[in-house]
Amino acid sequence: MQHLGSLPARQAVAVILGGGRGTRLWPLTKYRAKPAVPLAGKYRLIDIPISNCLNSGLDRIYIFTQFNSSSLNHHISATYHLDPFSRGFVNLEAASQSNESSDWYQGTADSVRRNFKTIAQWQTPHVVILPGDTIFRMDLGRLLDFHIGHGADVTVALHPTGAERASSFGLARLDPSDRIVQMVEKPAPDRLGPLALPPAEMARWGLGPARPFLASMGIYVFRTGVLAEVCLDRTQVDFGHQILPQAVANYRVSGYVFDDYWEDIGTIRAFYEANLALASPRPPFEFYIPDAPIYTRMRFLPSTHTGRVSLRSTRISDGCRIGDAALEECVVGIRSIIGDGVRMRRTVMMGADYYEQGIPQPGFEPVPPDAPMIGIGEGCEIDRAIIDKNARVGAGARILNARGLDHHDDPGERFYIRDGIVIIPKHAIIEPGTVI
């Protein structure tokens, strides 16, 4: 990754959008904001955009959020302490009442509008806007260079995609000068044809015929004055649906094609599959590259201790205690406790926030005195599941989606099923011998 020194820090402020209620990631967002959802055992989703900013020299970073922001605020304040001599910072700005507005953020553009005075105080000529729920590694300095070099008012980062996923994103059509001439948010499948790149443009970008569409990554660079102008209309609350399609008609909007790993973590299935892919022998995304690591909270945890464990394509984090168990295609989060005789396959286990000292201790909610300990008890069998933090799975439980359900909410809120994936929510208690 190219380091551009102080150039981006002097020319741009970074804004990370924390998203809304995160309903498509429920119940992982039951107690936390979407950017605070754990990722790959020891990270949080928010670590990805923050790390991209810091590795690119952008060290003035605002995060806008409003729902369940407590855990996100704790993570940010405990993790990102920047050099006081750099004037850099990572600040969380939660929605609050003011003389101008007493409502929640109504959309992505509304959150920027209501915080624009905070952004503008740095008097930088540009603002870089990023989503808080995608996995990518990009040199944002190069993006900013592209934006300035093309004389753009707005630049949108674009990712090649195929027809099977194209309708899930905003799509852009470019001319040979990299100017966006059309932008459509989540077009229906029967409207995709005119948005495909012509063969000459695909050849120019080195793209194959399987990915003829350019999807918006939710990463934008605005000239600060243009951002102020497009935010004037209070009825325009969303960048993708409203601001950008109109900007294409009224401003010079350029498209920056990024053909590297990028994954939008917008649904339970996307979250689950992305985590398992990161545990594969050749993961599509590396969290550590010497010049551009992904940062997260420093913890003083011991190394993981295991018994006679059988492992295959499994990522294990710090501070775990694993007995004589068999794990296949799993992600095991920090402080995970897995008992003897456990068989776990294609499972994302997020771990725990603390170690229990011999007896169950209260977590976020009261815990019955006879509840199982945090972690996976002896003899459990788990397949195709997500086990959220501080969950207690009693000995001999079988979490297999035995009835083959695609979507289900347990009346007792012990578990949920989405896309056939069983989710044991944070702090949940699964009694010994339970079959799901």
Q: Features of this protein?
A:
436 residues, alpha/beta, Spore Coat Polysaccharide Biosynthesis Protein SpsA, Chain A, UDP N-Acetylglucosamine Acyltransferase, domain 1, 2 domains, ten-stranded mixed beta sheet, 11 helices, 20% helix, disordered N terminus
Write the layout of secondary structure elements.
Blueprint: H1 7-11, E1 12-17, E2 38-39, E3 43-44, H2 47-55, E4 60-65, H3 70-79, E5 89-94, H4 108-114, H5 116-120, E6 126-131, E7 134-136, H6 140-149, E8 154-161, H7 163-166, E9 170-174, E10 180-185, H8 199-204, E11 213-223, H9 224-230, H10 239-250, E12 253-257, E13 262-264, H11 268-278, E14 305-306, E15 310-312, E16 315-316, E17 321-322, E18 326-328, E19 331-332, E20 337-338, E21 343-349, E22 375-376, E23 381-387, E24 392-393, E25 398-399, E26 407-409, E27 416-418, E28 421-424, E29 429-430
Parallel strand pairs: 1-4, 1-6, 4-5, 8-12, 14-17, 15-18, 16-19, 17-20, 18-21, 19-21, 21-23, 22-24, 23-25, 23-28, 24-29
Antiparallel strand pairs: 2-3, 6-11, 7-13, 8-11, 9-10, 9-11, 26-27, 27-28
Summarize the structure.
It is built from eleven helices and 29 strands. It is of the alpha/beta class and 436 residues long. The radius of gyration is 23 Å and the shape is globular.
What does this structure look like?
With 436 residues, the chain is of the alpha/beta class. It has two domains: 7-278, Spore Coat Polysaccharide Biosynthesis Protein SpsA, Chain A; 305-430, Hexapeptide repeat proteins (UDP N-Acetylglucosamine Acyltransferase, domain 1). The protein has helices spanning 7-11, 47-55, 70-79, 108-114, 116-120, 140-149, 163-166, 199-204, 224-230, 239-250, 268-278, and strands at 12-17, 38-39, 43-44, 60-65, 89-94, 126-131, 134-136, 154-161, 170-174, 180-185, 213-223, 253-257, 262-264, 305-306, 310-312, 315-316, 321-322, 326-328, 331-332, 337-338, 343-349, 375-376, 381-387, 392-393, 398-399, 407-409, 416-418, 421-424, 429-430. The strands form six sheets. Strands 15, 16, 18, 19, 21, 23, 25, 26, 27 and 28 form a ten-stranded mixed sheet that branches. A hairpin with a 5-residue loop joins strand 9 (170-174) and strand 10 (180-185). The protein is globular, with a radius of gyration of 23 Å. The N and C termini lie far apart (46 Å).
